From TrEMBL, chain A:
The lineage of its organism: Bacteria, Pseudomonadati, Pseudomonadota, Alphaproteobacteria, Hyphomicrobiales. It comes from Rhizobium herbae. Keywords: Membrane, Transmembrane, Transmembrane helix. Residues 20-438 form the DUF112 domain. The chain crosses the membrane at residues 20-49, 61-82, 109-135, 147-163, 169-187, 316-335, 355-379, 391-411, 417-443, 464-488. Pfam families: TctA. This is Tripartite tricarboxylate transporter permease. InterPro entries: DUF112_TM.
UniProtKB/TrEMBL annotation, chain B:
The chain crosses the membrane at residues 17-34, 54-73, 85-101, 107-123, 130-153. Residues 20-154 form the DUF1468 domain. This is Tripartite tricarboxylate transporter TctB family protein. It comes from the Bacteria. It holds the Pfam family TctB. Keywords: Membrane, Transmembrane, Transmembrane helix. It comes from Rhizobium herbae. InterPro entries: DUF1468.
């Protein structure tokens, strides 16, 4: 069977009424939570993970993917109307989009963001379906050392290649590693870092950590800023439809944004925001209306929003084919797979093709649903932006603790939630990125497993890690991604990298 | 560590809060090293065992601690915004109360208290109104999630009235 047969089969799975319902619930919840200011897709997925506990794996993963895509759509609405991006990958959208909204062109800004996301999501999901089988074939020749090298590369790009400090990125990553070794060692059954406490034997739940760091840490941080006065929500004036000129100026940025965003998401380069910045810079250079940039240029919304969604789909390439999460959101999605005992990777394509292709096909369907949800119904979502902060954050904490209690109703788990929440708050104060902690916690044990396998095969000879050509090349790239930014920052060229900071997803 | 720093005058002074972070990282590294050292003999014939990765991580944390001291002394840490203490105390207190009340009072009352405390942190201090409101909302949430979605949320006296 070729890719299209698989995709058709997947569509049949995804088009079953129950799965359609799951997808619809997913995109609706995702959009609703994504629209709320201060909540990005990573937290959206972490908060809603417990909702899917009791469902079957296929259905819940479809709901999950809907939440992920919905969160990406919802974030753009917040950026445009409120100027407080829900996630880092919407920062650029806020630059031009909020200016458009203030000039009374909020409708077309929302429309170009939604349609751009749709176009990009559609193309990128098709690209995912086309590329995935080849990456799977490539992954089959990967041994433990190649996997280990790939994970090292992911660690470097997620923690230190972008952002404003190599030190703080690496520190976050190592805190994640330190939390990852808590519990029972997978290979020998020995307990590590558990100190005889039974609750620690199972290790630290990724969802507990993510919810604590993102929801509680963020709430504490926002609360500690004191009363900054109410946020100003720009009303959507006039039509949400774009005129002929808007279309003419939007379609090329959509396609360029997709072309920029997808490869960046697909490579272990960490985060959708890099693609959005590159797309913004490209549109600024190519535009026929340079005077509008900074005052609300539609190209500056269309391109980055497309790039944002394309790289979201791109992130699924390493996640599904290699089991390698390169963003915090992907890390939490991996936790979602693991709660059903599924390990994404080349084997999953062989053992459970229905599930994988059903998931990919459901992304296509989710995209259509989101277009409908976001364009005609945008007024409904805008109402969510007017929830006053006390009730908004009280609700966020209610659902954050609900998820943890639902997964494991123990006082100890809530204590960990509180402790990690405070840790997340302190890390925010000092400018430590959060995503590397989450990625370190989930990817750390997988990397350890591969490393120990590789070294056991070589009987403890460390040089074996560098003698495979693929592994060597990957490690050289990782070393370059670690050292080059260090040199750039030392020479005072760090601003560019700081702008590309991967703060949330 | 919650005092705001103004970057222009204080950037080149040793950063005490950052030094505290360095001590924390070193202590965490030491703890991992101590915990792993009792497993060190389990390496098997390849010398690679459950202690290998913890040793590497402990070493990494110690290096990062030294690096942090270095940056703290040079004042390389970014300027920090001034942090209000009261809202943080409200939220942390709310979470702690929820944790203590959960088993005895049940989900709705415990989480209702958290709800009110969070609202208080953001300026809604009328607790006689927000606590009952929170409990009512949480009871609704409990009925949906524990009743319909079968999530195991602890029940207290209030929940037993309905279920």
């Amino acid at each position: 069977m070729n890719t299209f047969d698989f995709l058709l089969q997947g569509l049949l799975v995804a088009a079953q009424p129950m799965n359609l319902l799951y997808a619809l619930i997913g995109v609706t919840l995702g959009t609703a939570v994504g629209v709320l200011p201060g909540i990005g897709p990573a937290l959206t997925v972490a908060l809603l993970l417990p909702v899917t506990y009791k469902l079957d794996p296929g259905g819940s993963l479809i709901m999950f993917a809907g939440i992920y895509y919905g969160g990406m759509y919802g974030g753009s609405t917040t950026s445009i109307l409120l100027n407080t991006p829900g996630e880092s990958s919407s920062i650029v959208t806020a630059l031009e989009g909020n200016k458009m909204a203030r000039a009374g062109r909020g409708g077309p800004a929302l429309a170009t963001a939604a349609i751009g996301s749709f176009v990009a999501g559609l193309i990128a999901t098709m690209a995912l379906a086309l590329i995935a089988p080849y990456v799977v074939k490539l992954a089959l020749v990967f041994g433990p050392r190649e996997y280990f090298a790939l994970m090292v590369l992911a660690f470097v790009t997620v923690s230190s290649a972008f952002g404003d400090s190599t030190l703080r990125g690496l520190t976050s990553l190592f805190i994640g590693f330190a939390l990852a070794i808590v519990g029972i060692d997978q290979l020998t059954g020995q307990t590590r870092m558990s100190f005889g406490i039974p609750d620690l034997l199972d290790g630290i739940e990724v969802t507990t950590l993510a919810v604590a760091m993102f929801a509680i840490g963020e709430s504490l941080y926002i609360a500690a800023q004191g009363d900054l006065g109410p946020d100003k929500v720009e009303a959507v004036k006039g039509s949400v439809w774009m005129n002929a000129q808007d279309w003419a100026r939007s379609w090329k940025p959509w396609l360029r944004g997709t072309a920029i965003g997808f490869p960046i998401g697909a490579m272990p380069a960490g985060g959708a925001e890099i693609g959005t910045f590159l797309s913004y810079a490209t549109e600024k250079r190519l535009t026929n209306h340079p005077e509008e940039f900074g005052n609300g240029a539609i190209e500056g919304v269309a391109g980055p929003e497309a790039a944002n969604n394309a790289s979201a789909a791109g992130t699924l390439v390493p996640l599904l084919t290699l089991g390698l999460p390169t963003t915090a959101t992907a890390a939490i999605m991996l936790a979602g797979f693991q709660q059903y005992g599924l390990q994404p990777g080349p084997l999953l394509f062989a053992t459970n093709p229905q599930l994988v292709w059903g998931l990919i096909a459901s992304l296509l369907i989710a995209n259509f649903m989101l277009l409908v949800l976001n364009l005609p119904l945008v007024g409904l979502w805008v109402k969510l932006l007017t929830i006053p902060k006390p009730w908004l954050y009280a609700g966020i904490l209610l659902f954050a603790t609900l998820g943890t209690i639902g997964a494991n109703p123990s006082v100890f788990e809530l204590g960990m939630l509180l402790a990690f929440g405070v840790l997340g708050y302190v890390m925010r104060i000092f400018g430590y990125p959060i995503a590397p902690v989450v990625v370190g916690l989930i990817l750390g044990p997988l990397a350890e497993q591969q490393l120990r396998r590789a070294l056991s095969i070589s009987q403890g000879d460390v040089t074996v890690l560098f003698t495979s050509p693929i592994a060597a090349v990957l490690l050289v790239i990782a070393a370059a991604a670690l050292i080059i930014p260090l040199i750039l920052r030392a020479r005072g060229r760090g601003e560019v990298l700081a702008q590309l900071a991967a703060s949330e997803d | 560590m919650s005092k705001g720093h103004t970057p222009s005058t204080e950037t080149r002074r040793p950063d005490k809060a950052a030094l505290v972070i360095a001590v924390f990282l070193a202590a965490l590294g030491g703890l991992i090293y101590w915990d792993a050292s009792r497993l060190a003999s389990m390496g098997g014939y390849s010398g690679i065992g459950p202690a290998t990765t913890p040793f590497v991580i402990a070493g990494g944390l110690l290096i990062l601690a030294v690096w942090t001291v270095f940056e703290a002394l040079r004042g390389d840490f970014p300027a920090r915004d001034r942090q209000e203490v009261a809202p943080v105390v409200w939220i942390v207190g709310g979470l702690a109360l929820q944790m203590l009340l959960l088993k005895t009072a049940g989900f709705s009352i415990a989480t209702g208290v958290l709800f009110a405390a969070t609202a208080a942190a953001f300026g809604k201090r009328k607790l006689w109104m927000t606590i009952p409101l929170g409990i009512l909302i949480c009871l609704g949430v409990w009925l949906i999630f524990a009743g319909l979605l079968q999530l195991s949320l602890p029940a207290g006296p209030l929940e037993h009235l309905f279920w």
